[in-house]
Here is the input.
Amino acid sequence: MSQLIAYNGNNIWNQQMLDEFNEQLFILQLSNLAPQFNTRISYVRSNIEEIESASYQELVTDSFILYKIIIKKIHVNPHVLFTSKLLKVNTVGNNLPNMDPLINYEQLLKLRPLKYNYQASLVYLKKLNEQQDIQIRLNQGLIRHNKVIPYGKQLIEKLNFYNDLDDFTYEYLSTKKVILNQGEVNLAIKNFQRRNGLKVDGVIGNETIRALNNSFSNDQRILALNMQRTRLKKMRAPIYLYVNVPDFKLQVFRNYNKVFESKVITGRYKRPTGLFSSEMRNIVINPTWNVPEGIKKKDIIPNVKRNIHYLRKNKINIIRSWQNPRKISPYSINWRNVNARNFPFQFQQTPGRHNSLGKVKFDFPNNFAIFLHDTSSKNLFMKDKRALSSGCVRVENAVTLAEYLLQFEGYSSNQISNYVNSRRTKYLKISKPIYIQMMYITSWVDENDILHKRPDIYGYDKKQSYVKNINFVSMKHFQN
Here is the structure.
């Protein structure tokens, strides 16, 4: 710290810098990532009037070093953002080697956890922090259209706080003795459901009740935590694919402008989609499906043991190995004695309409055997919750996505259509960089200052010391 003071002078922190730093500390404190640092943060934030004091200046500088250490730890070990495990940080005697000795306002701006819509998110955090919680205490069950809503006054107050119900309507309804699930109230409930990634039907069911019963303090913790998670988001040009797993959505950005969007299906709780970044290597038209080990053991072999005709029905071949694709007759195997854990052969599904990967597959290196692909089960995209796969990401408009990406490789839509209709497998190499990132963001504030939340499908938001599927969080970047 003495070197920093020597480089920057005794009075490093002016009011503008201190205000910015305090706001970033406020977000860190709400995220509860480093609670042992919270007492220090509270003191720094509540004693701003001591800004001219040398001891206060030193304390803020030392806190800045701690803050930089925490940010570095997040990047080195991103698991902490998904387990609620506490960051271990010493609050005294810290030294940060390789740190830029210059401390100024521009350097502080670069440390913000959120690069987009930061101010709106910060304002919403302050709004949540200042608001006394509204207890609704709805019981489990269904409150259908035109039915009386228990704790209706508290409900409309909460809907008004979230801007799902406008001020004029709220004031009018506040004069009523009974609140019914109809009219503007029903529309407000639908707005609430839409923002929370729930089924939009205006019926107050169990999932809507759980979301309504959520406290403002938990809302602010989760929003602050997700703001820290965005430190891992690295939007890159010229083309960037972004999959937000709990939002069940894929977005494509070109030169930082959104140009494509599609619903997706992601991994279920016991087989989650991994979190990482990579670069697309090739696109396969009419792919064969090389069945991964996990699906082979948990799905294919149990199905074959129940019904040996399962393979023929689904046009799946048994091959000796990936290096030696010689076919083996399923009737030459005594399935009663087969142990799924050490079955020596592989399964491969032929291309076509029956293929689980559909008409197109998008390949990129990663440790989880995960890729994007089409699917023959289009009806599943009608579901609101789409954590249904074995880990890979199924894209609703996969062929359209392939056409968009391949135009930069010189392929026309007609060429892609002809390749698809041929039903022959075609490998198309990607030569220009296409960056892809799998993220897990369950809370954010949009460009209209509206808070959005999504169900925590893998339990990464919960306050707990252990998450079963944390081995699927690497945030590692895999390059070609």
